[in-house]
Amino acid sequence: MTTSTADREQLASFLMTLRSDDGIGARVMTVVEAVPRRLFVGPDIADIFADQSLPLECGQTMPSARAAVRLAGALRVQPESRILEIGTGSGYVTALLARLGLHVTTLDRYKTLLTRAAERLKACGITNVTYIQEDGRDGYAGQAPFDRIVVHASFEALPRAFVEQMASQGILVTAIGAPGERQRIVRHQKLGSRFEEELLFDARLQPLERGVATLL
């Protein structure tokens, strides 16, 4: 895929802004540079790294580049990490995680989003991803435990199902808080029989919807 001069300039500027963000290490920066964001946002978006969410098919949205990268950084993915992602969306975060870890299992309730994300990742040469049409409300016990879990949605409290699907020393990142109220992205780390929780940054996400979409 050809990268325009404007896209390259925007990428260089974006990488400079990331240097001031906690948790964005050298591996994450390298992956951001390697994954062509233009492929995920479409040709009609002028500034592909603008700090705003963007519309997707099926009435969904994708996070801004900064939010996406901060989520990837918050997971502290290791090369051997097995990752569960709930909410594939465009596949941009999926691509970042797949470059960082061993394997990604990504779930979405919309077949259209899964299919198009798979096409984009294939164009990037990324093959270590399994795509599953599920709503993700109960995680994905069939391939648990996972070293890393990211949920692109909000919960008022962390569901027990996700806790049980985390490996020892595992990390889960999601938004905690009621819809319409202040939410925070929280990193949960499983340490034996206890959890450490760290508040990271503000978010505004919706709860997961129930069931898979039958038409889209």
UniProtKB/TrEMBL annotation:
Q: Which GO terms describe its biological process?
A: methylation
Report the CDD domains cross-referenced here.
Answer: AdoMet_MTases (cd02440)
Q: Which UniProt keywords apply?
A: Methyltransferase, Transferase
Presence of keyword Translocase: no
Spell out the protein name for this chain. Answer: Protein-L-isoaspartate O-methyltransferase
Q: Which family does it belong to?
A: Belongs to the methyltransferase superfamily. L-isoaspartyl/D-aspartyl protein methyltransferase family.
Q: Where are the transmembrane segments?
A: none
- Which SUPFAM superfamilies does the UniProt entry name for this protein? S-adenosyl-L-methionine-dependent methyltransferases
Please give the organism. Answer: Aureimonas pseudogalii
In terms of Pfam families, this protein maps to: PCMT
Q: Name one GO molecular function term.
A: protein-L-isoaspartate (D-aspartate) O-methyltransferase activity
Methyltransferase: is it a keyword of this entry? yes
